[in-house]
Amino acid sequence: MSSLGRASAIIGAGTMVSRVTGLLRSIVLVGVIGSYKSGPADAFTFANQLPNSVFSLISVGILTAVIVPQIVKAAADADGGNAFISKLFTLGTVVLVVITGIATAAAPWLVHLAAGKASPDILALATALAYWCLPQILFYGLYALLGEALNARRIFGPFTWAPVINNVVSIIGFLILGAVFAPVSTNAAEWTPAMINTLGGTATLGIALQAVVLLVFWRRTGLALKPDFRWRGVGLGAVGRLAGWTFLMAFASLAAGMLQGFIISEAAGAGASATVTANAWLIFMLPYSVIVLSIGTPYFTQISEHAAAGRHQEVRADIARSIRTLLFFIVAAVAAVAASAIPASRVFSKATEDVSAASAAEAAALVLLCYLVSLIPLTILFIVQRTFYAYDDTRTPFWFTIFQCVLIVATTLAAWGLLEADVIPITSLAAAVALGQSIASILQTVVATWLLHRKIGGLQVGSWMLTIGRFAVAGIPAGFAGWGVYLLAGGADGWMVAGQFLGALGTAVIGLVVVGVYIGILALMRAPELTVAGALVRRFLPGR
């Protein structure tokens, strides 16, 4: 367990710094080009999300599902997996170059698919920025390939620390944009080629450096990575068969995401749209990244090793232990984020000519809360889905992901129908789409857990539910305590929403109160998970 604790601490620390600098990056960008009712902000979000979406699908689906288990197995080869990994990287790079070239050439069509209901000036700006942003697919892919290979060799740190470089470069570039072209217009039609080149070039340069820095750490693997086009005879066919299902899954998820963006684009420049949704997702992903990825990634490597060795009882124990440990932290995070939703959203909100910063923060907070509904189920799904991958089963995740995609499409179309019927205003469209996604994720988790139980049995689901109940007894009053602090500070008229920095400070204060009450209640209940959680937290302390 100590090795898992050390790995979790390394990943958690790197992820924390990465996410904090990522938050600073977004704060600076909002300060320069705005978010709520900002045409250029929505245009950049549409353009920059295209490569981000591809990276997310590659990293979470294809690479995690296929690469990690296969590299773990290849480590048993006589050469330590050197030949396999070199051939795999060569093939992956070739595929990435081809995909990147096709995507960049198709930029106008991709932008239309992602944001076709936006105004013509926003679409034109998004297309110009997309030509800069789409080459990120290559660099994101290389970063994911290198990072997952390092993780599979139990070198966990670089993959989580590398994004810090991207964030620093982006912050510098955004500040230059704001300084040189001040005041930066929030009207998409007024943007010049120089402004477009500065913003787009900055975004792509940061991603490129993020990938390159991982090569510095490659020597720690003890492998000699080199181009090798001899792809026959080393098992790449098996990888291809496994990846086939995840490619289909990736396509389905991409299609569902595109539909969401297409519908939300109707609100671009008129309310909460792509940028507000992206910032709400960023806040939502902060606890998921810091907690679930830092603790869950080492568990996934261990589950893969136990599954490859046929030690199924240990796999079941890993699943139950990892989920209980993750939920201890995630329930506290849900309570803290829910209580501080408005101050946290104020960090990413800026006043416009007709909307105050507080009103913009409240609109963004609604989107955040709609996403937050699914954080606990997605935590369980992280472990459940990766257990299928550990058993080289990518077909079953494909089917329950298709199920989720169908639900996302249905709920997104329902949200659009409610808008067209004047049941909801255009300012609530993004929140309705976010809520639909959460409902789809909850149902997906239920189905996935049932299918895994059928596959390996004995998932100890009862212990999960008992754990969730125990944590809820502590989390609900902790959340109300945090909300009380917000109200005592003046609520929407108080200091916590008076500025971006004060919003961040208010979020921290509320979070500390929530965590303190949560731990205090669990301590009174003598919850056994406190011991495990305490051991993990101590790994982050200096000297540990």
Automatic annotation (TrEMBL):
<feature type="transmembrane region" description="Helical">
    <location>
        <begin position="88"/>
        <end position="110"/>
    </location>
</feature>
<feature type="transmembrane region" description="Helical">
    <location>
        <begin position="194"/>
        <end position="218"/>
    </location>
</feature>
<feature type="transmembrane region" description="Helical">
    <location>
        <begin position="363"/>
        <end position="384"/>
    </location>
</feature>
<feature type="transmembrane region" description="Helical">
    <location>
        <begin position="54"/>
        <end position="76"/>
    </location>
</feature>
<feature type="transmembrane region" description="Helical">
    <location>
        <begin position="158"/>
        <end position="182"/>
    </location>
</feature>
<feature type="transmembrane region" description="Helical">
    <location>
        <begin position="122"/>
        <end position="146"/>
    </location>
</feature>
<feature type="transmembrane region" description="Helical">
    <location>
        <begin position="322"/>
        <end position="343"/>
    </location>
</feature>
<keyword id="KW-0472">Membrane</keyword>
<keyword id="KW-1133">Transmembrane helix</keyword>
<feature type="transmembrane region" description="Helical">
    <location>
        <begin position="431"/>
        <end position="452"/>
    </location>
</feature>
<feature type="transmembrane region" description="Helical">
    <location>
        <begin position="7"/>
        <end position="34"/>
    </location>
</feature>
<keyword id="KW-0573">Peptidoglycan synthesis</keyword>
<dbReference type="Pfam" id="PF03023">
    <property type="entry name" value="MurJ"/>
</dbReference>
<feature type="transmembrane region" description="Helical">
    <location>
        <begin position="280"/>
        <end position="301"/>
    </location>
</feature>
<feature type="transmembrane region" description="Helical">
    <location>
        <begin position="396"/>
        <end position="419"/>
    </location>
</feature>
<feature type="transmembrane region" description="Helical">
    <location>
        <begin position="464"/>
        <end position="489"/>
    </location>
</feature>
<keyword id="KW-0812">Transmembrane</keyword>
<dbReference type="InterPro" id="IPR004268">
    <property type="entry name" value="MurJ"/>
</dbReference>
<dbReference type="InterPro" id="IPR051050">
    <property type="entry name" value="Lipid_II_flippase_MurJ/MviN"/>
</dbReference>
<keyword id="KW-1003">Cell membrane</keyword>
<feature type="transmembrane region" description="Helical">
    <location>
        <begin position="239"/>
        <end position="260"/>
    </location>
</feature>
<feature type="transmembrane region" description="Helical">
    <location>
        <begin position="501"/>
        <end position="524"/>
    </location>
</feature>
<protein>
    <submittedName>
        <fullName>Murein biosynthesis integral membrane protein MurJ</fullName>
    </submittedName>
</protein>
<keyword id="KW-0133">Cell shape</keyword>
